[in-house]
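Repro case for the chain-ordering regression, as requested:
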Amino acid sequence: MKAIAVRRGETEPVVVEKPRPEPEPGEALVRTLVVGVDGTDHEVISGAHGAFPDGEDHLVLGHEAVGVVEDPGDTDLSAGDVVVPTVRRPVPGESNEFFERGEPDMAPGGQYVERGIEGGHGFMAEYFTSPAEYLVPLPEELASVGFLVEPISISEKAIEHARASRSAFDWRPESALVLGNGSLGLLTLAMLGESYDRTYCLGRRDRPDPTIDVIEELGATYVDSRQTPVSEVPDAYEAMDFVYEATGYPPHAFGAIEALAPNGVAALLGVPEPWEFEVDGGTLHRELVLGNKALVGSVNSNLRQFEAAVETLATLPAWFLDALVTGVYDLDSFEGAFAPGETTIKAAVKFDEYEKR
Amino acid sequence: MKAIAVRRGETEPVVVEKPRPEPEPGEALVRTLVVGVDGTDHEVISGAHGAFPDGEDHLVLGHEAVGVVEDPGDTDLSAGDVVVPTVRRPVPGESNEFFERGEPDMAPGGQYVERGIEGGHGFMAEYFTSPAEYLVPLPEELASVGFLVEPISISEKAIEHARASRSAFDWRPESALVLGNGSLGLLTLAMLGESYDRTYCLGRRDRPDPTIDVIEELGATYVDSRQTPVSEVPDAYEAMDFVYEATGYPPHAFGAIEALAPNGVAALLGVPEPWEFEVDGGTLHRELVLGNKALVGSVNSNLRQFEAAVETLATLPAWFLDALVTGVYDLDSFEGAFAPGETTIKAAVKFDEYEKR
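-- result from build under test --
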């Protein structure tokens, strides 16, 4: 079968030929439909993040997948079931308490592999196998957009953890700001529209721009970070009850403290490199304390959050998904899904067409 | 009656003569027993924090009080009840949603006064009045140490908010680090001993020192910040599941992110002044995200947390309270309670002796 991989020493994805995997006991064989591409894939390809599987000369890419059960093996799944795989798996032969409790997203580094990212082959192949416990069923009408379940699950977790941090009192948030107008930012903005009276999304682009169009069609306000730094958002717009950071730009993480309203919380999701800079640490510390504010870091997601993401995906309007997914490329033109483009929001690689049962 | 106050334009507390207050409907008259002194009092006296009541030329100090109901007025209290007053009150004539929900601790600046601190007279007087709803009953056997209820309630809130931030997953903390070996730090260290297998307390003092003795008698490990900066605690000792910051030293707030174990949380309580300095913001941001870590600011406390503090106070061992309270000064030598001293941990002013009913 064909797979899209990055080879050791290379920094471009290529199509490789691999044997079709055989399901082990407890595993199903899944025929891949579509696999999304995100910023993490680009970091993996460039070598900035992730790791090759032990002893392998290549890493099959892809962690945002949807597929159809081809062979359920000895599992409770049925052939034809549409499924989304989760990403974190135990280090081979080394399960641990986090997996046993169903919270691999909380496992510290070294206590997991991530398929398509760190130490485990991903899903950008015509077929993959997976233990059934890591396959989340999806209604078949969502098959074509099921590759969005994984990124949505990332935000489900971050929003859940941020809300939990405010659960010791009667929090009544009204305003939310998403930092970053990439595909994760826009997905999150659409999710937050249900819960917040007023939503904002920060980017650094000139009009006309398709992401600004999406922001405004969602009823949100576009904030241009070149005119309004994050810390000045309260003066220019309003103080925010919730800030969701999806940029990996560390000054935004610190600026978020000043963007927050009293009792607000910022969820941080970006993964920057080391970078020393000056902050008014005294004022930030004081603001956190006197404002009862919180910063909550969040990475990855668990099965429960994938299941919540399936429900969320079903609520997102068709126009939004159409606007968000700017390119789905067949295997013979897969490079398009990895090419930067001014009008690209979310790209994916299609391995097979879903045919209704 | 006599009261201890700071006058406008002065930076030393003095005894002033004031009329004994008359309880309004819904209020009780309380005869003051003991009032504690903390760092906030010193900031109020120096003018660094707080505000005089509107139209007044002085501020009666004191927000950590215990007293006895002298005249219950039309309230459900009885003469002789031992009570602890809460600190935040509505701005006169202006109640708001935070007070209505019983969460004045979450009210933003401007939506409250704080007795003895900001805009309202405190409890360092022979008598004070208070609406009964802001008086927390105390068992009479705790009367002599009831002035510790307020500081304990501050930590009850901070610990509750920190735990809430970890409630979206199965958090199993084992190690806790208290930053600061002042009276609030030591009280919190004693509180945490019940819930954590291993506790640590950071200070910057040489042995022999009474706070180090208390730390070690509590079974905790003393960490000297001059030898081990907060960020190096994981290498020197272990990564911490919980960090409690009570120093107001902003580099500690940032260092706490590196002191935390994966999935850990730091509660911040200090209130520093503005101070610009350099941080590795990229690494801190990345650590928060990849480690699922949180920072939670916390200020003040509500009635429920005062009630929890009463229960906590009853569990603290007598030897600890004896060691913590290094001086209780009569009104005619009250200056001693405000004087710095190498061996001072917690000082208080006694207005009257409690006599058992």
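Ordering looks correct now. Chain A has eleven helices and 20 strands.
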